[in-house]
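Sanity check

After download, print the first record. It should look like this:
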Amino acid sequence: MKTLSVVIPNFNNARFLPKCLDSVLSQDYPLEEIVIYDDCSTDGSRQLLDKYAGQDSRIRLMLADVNRGVSYARDTAIRSCRSEYVTTLDADDFYYDDKKLSREMAKINASSTPACAFSQTVLTDEDGNVACDMTLLDLQKDFRFRTVTQTIGIHVARDFCFPLSAYIEVGGYVHDMKLFEDWDLSLKLLSKCPFLFSGGYGTAYRQKDGGLSRVDQKKIVAAKIRAFRQGGKYLSYTFSERFVFYMRTYICALIDTYLAKKNRK
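Expected structure tokens:
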């Protein structure tokens, strides 16, 4: 049985931390450690984290003295892990199912080669109420093509379990990336490991005000292309993957720009 660590980056998410941490502690897969990197929170998060750490010896806190952003936080915490496999969870999200990690690690433990494993994301509103169709899908089908071309929609592999050795080999999170950093990592890991669908539900992802809807389309396109090109240094894209990615990227940007202008009228 492979060992597993959970990494949780946090910045001013005291409101959501209890739900997040309780969902990790209730997982039925034995965890090597739960590494929480607090990126200079000012909202009482650290007092809450101290309380949880005092109640469970698996929790290890990393308390930053300078705020450097989520990519730096994730990367620093991941590289400090002692286990063979790692997964991440943002402090404002939570695991929807107590068997999320055990199902993913069952796929990994049964694999003859190192692998990544993921589950279906559940979208919720800011209060944690389910806000999506709960039909369980076959996300294994055409996973690589849909991931590379960004046609995977809301069902991108989030908070998947991955081998620490492969993460180190591909360079991990890029510290200065603020958009599509998770997709960037997925592309790089695809070059090293197969991604296996657990067949169940995984992370409950809170949809909050703001996000990409407030980011300039030119910045979104530039960030997507940067991640795609970085992934191309590790993953050899097919012609159809390149064609569909660029076509979809620019068409979506044009549509979003048009709708934004229409809404402002």
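If your output differs, re-run the checksum step. Summary of this record's structure: The radius of gyration is 18 Å.
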